[in-house]
Write a structure and sequence with these properties.
Blueprint: H1 2-49, E1 51-52, H2 56-65, H3 69-89, E2 92-105, E3 109-122, E4 131-146, E5 149-158
Antiparallel strand pairs: 1-2, 2-3, 3-4, 4-5
Length: 165
Amino acid sequence: MLRALTVLVAAGLAVAAVWLLLDLRRLQAAERASGEALSAARSYAPDMLSYDYRTIERDMLRAGAHATGQLAEHYRTLAATLGPQARERRTVQHAVVAAAGVESATPEEVRVLLFVNMVTTRSGPGQEEPKQQVSQGRARLVMVTQGDGWRASRLSTLLGDTPVP
């Protein structure tokens, strides 16, 4: 009886140890993914949020190269819709990441919250001096693995208290 109980306890401990080891590996993979995706998001965000009316088609192509899925398609069509308006108003938008952090992470998907400083300069028809607006904002990039790197699958700007989907 005592021997059977000892074997049962040992088997239970072995199962628990294997489960903990597998969970540890998953957590370590998520931690590695966090670092890689955070670095990629900080690097990609200025390209994805900045444009110049003189080079808007090139800017949108560069931004789309950091994206995947519907977000990449969005950047492919954005130049056509944003371009005429940006050229008319001579808009230049420059984004700088002030801070960033990981909201959640799995080995395949990492949600990154970015605090972004934006400088937008416009000089429309009839305006002698360009107008410059400085703003601070938040954005969330959902980063996913693709091939041997990370790409943005979703981008959302955050206003107020926005729940994590």
